[in-house]
Protein: Rrf2 family transcriptional regulator
Organism: Streptomyces griseoviridis
Amino acid sequence: MRISARADYAVRAALQLVASGDDGPVKAEAIADAQDIPHKFLEGILSDMRRGGLVTSQRGGNGGYRLAKPAEAISIADVIRVVDGPLVSVRGVRPPELSYRGPAQSLLPLWIALRSNVREILDGVSLADVASAQLPADVAALTDTPGAWANP
């Protein structure tokens, strides 16, 4: 599975908004500077997040962005879906829409299992969890698996 730059930037921008607390709206420039994200690219991402109901925006001198809901109510999966679409697709198609023949038939249940596990992890971790460095125990345990940090 590959996490796009767009998804990575979106999650980081959302976490920056969590860190800002109730200090009022945060300007896109401030988020871009704090997270080393190209400003113009971030503007498009924030627009998608606004359309997706994850952030609100306010215009003017005191304008900027803030989360539309509490950080506990926004999963990492929510953010990724808003900016990138489905969490797992094969050639841009959701696994249930695929069909295979012959020896490739067992690929479909494999893709479904992958999708299920990705959903379980990303839907189960909120922005608040990441911002507080308190990942759910089942997710944190996966990082202790032998070889989890190594590239084959």
